[in-house]
Amino acid sequence: MLSVHDFHAGYPSVPVVSGAELRVERGEIVSLFGHNGAGKSTLMKGVFGVLGDCRGEVRFNDAAVAGASTRSLMRRGMVLVPQERGVFPSLTVAENLRMGFWASGESARAEYDRRLARTLGYLPILDERKDDRAGELSGGQQQMVSIGRALLAGPKLLLLDEPSTGLAPNLVDDIMALVTRLREEEGLSVLLVEQNVGQALAVSDRVYLMKGGRIIHEATPDQLTWSRSLWDLF
Amino acid sequence: MIVLFQMFVEGVAAGSLYALAAVGFALIYATTRTFHFAHGATMMLAAYAFYQAVTVWQWPAVFAVALAVAVAVAFGVGVERLVYQPMRRTDASFLTIFAASFGLLIVATNVVVLLFGNSFYSVDSTLSRGFLVGPLYLSWVNLLSVAVALVSITALQWFMRRTRTGVILRAMMDDAALVGVFGLGDRRYGMIAFAIGSALVAPAAILTSLNAGLQPSMGALLTLLAIAGAIVGGIGNLWGAALGGLLLGIAENVGVWQLSSTWKPAITFGVLLIFLMFKPDGLLGAATRRS
């Protein structure tokens, strides 16, 4: 579904990621682990076309998409759930969700209703709060809005950038359970950047370890759990 | 006391026009983060276009109004497309864009001076007349000012809440970068914000020219009033800007009850100074931030 080859990303005159290689198969949950500053979020943003200074090969659903705009990637089914929740605080929950639908390039009312019903099935709290401003919700609820908005975009691949930041452990469990359900019931692929290694390992099929802007190892959760030498790598 | 009521009525009418200018400025600023100092130039050009059409060319009023709106929108969108957007693409700083905007106001003012001279012009219209309601004198221009402001701001409220473009513009007011992450809110939306913000000053331009006449300095004064209204209302909050503009109009008219009318600007900017010192978030700014 997604393959990244010899990918370099960063900011003007500040290279952060160099020579990254990774892949995410259909229906797979893949996690990127590493310390702060390792380049995980930069790699994810670079793949999603948010950063200007990127080079390398990115293929999504067998199409070369390196350098494609976020608009084009969203319409192909690659959707980013940004760090720090990233809701529009003065918009209502319903309006936030609608932003995701519009980003997908769809406009048919029937399709919107279908996606909304499916999303609210996973996130019923959003139905109760749909007329409230997103800025009035708790941190956990805002994260649900952010994920719900991504689901309205009709994703095939979700890029989740540290969804547990600032959330209580039980809410992180809820989010990880939701990610697992989306994979099982919708066949979604997920690339997850997460500091909360333990909870992310529990839902991942494969993991990549990043250090100093490079991917230094690929492993299964079992290998990482039982290998002291892998832990020592980062 | 009657005089005070009369001044309050005049203040509501003037404040209605300031509200339109302030809402236009606030919309442009909040969506594009451009401190559009040339906003007053839009108003001045619309006013002179209206004057030229209705007085010199003797066009029917409806066509003259349409020309004024078209000139306002063309100037606003043109400046965004040809000046601000290229500057943003080169990562020009806020201050650089502000300086360019300030320069645009001066250039536009000088162009008007070249074309029309520095003289004061007035537009003759039956709307300048009025009628008595008890002891109060109401002019048609004043009534029209309040009505146009109410209709325009209500229509904008509907547009911002009920249409896809309006919701995306509100999202840009919250976080334009995040809107970009969704591949929405591209350059077209900046131009839409400028088009709407500029169109809102056209009625203010027309009604001001009917009520108070025209001179090239009107652009700079209106820019300052729009900025003051937007700050008093809470910078970045459209409805606060409307309230701020209205408040300034009432304050400057009621404030000269026992003073010469030359004190009006001092009162307006005195109110602004008080807000900056004691309530810098403005009337509705803090509420918005909390939410």
TrEMBL record, chain A:
| Matching CDD domains | ABC_TM1139_LivF_branched
Indicate the segments forming the ABC transporter domain, all copies. 2-231
**The UniProt record lists the keyword Kinase:** no
In terms of Gene3D superfamilies, this protein maps to: P-loop containing nucleotide triphosphate hydrolases
Q: Which UniProt keywords apply?
A: Amino-acid transport, ATP-binding, Nucleotide-binding, Transport
Cross-referenced InterPro entries? AAA+_ATPase, ABC_transporter-like_ATP-bd, ABC_transporter-like_CS, BCAA_Transport_ATP-bd_LivF, P-loop_NTPase
* The organism's place on the tree of life at top rank: Bacteria
* GO biological process per UniProt: L-amino acid transport
Give the molecular function GO annotations: ATP binding; ATP hydrolysis activity; branched-chain amino acid transmembrane transporter activity
> Transferase: present as a keyword of the record?
no
| Cross-referenced SUPFAM superfamilies | P-loop containing nucleoside triphosphate hydrolases
Query: Family, per the entry?
Result: Belongs to the ABC transporter superfamily.
Write the protein's name.
ABC transporter ATP-binding protein
In the record, what lineage is assigned to the organism producing the protein? Bacteria, Pseudomonadati, Pseudomonadota, Gammaproteobacteria, Salinisphaerales
From TrEMBL, chain B:
Q: Which organism is it from?
A: Salinisphaera orenii MK-B5
CDD domains hit by this protein: TM_PBP1_LivH_like
Q: Identify one Pfam family in the record.
A: BPD_transp_2
Protein name from the UniProt record = ABC transporter permease
Please give the family membership noted in the entry: Belongs to the binding-protein-dependent transport system permease family. LivHM subfamily.
Source superkingdom: Bacteria
Q: Which residues cross the membrane?
A: 12-30, 60-83, 95-117, 137-160, 167-185, 191-214, 221-246, 266-287
Give the bilayer topology: Multi-pass membrane protein
Where in or outside the cell it occurs: the entry states: Cell inner membrane
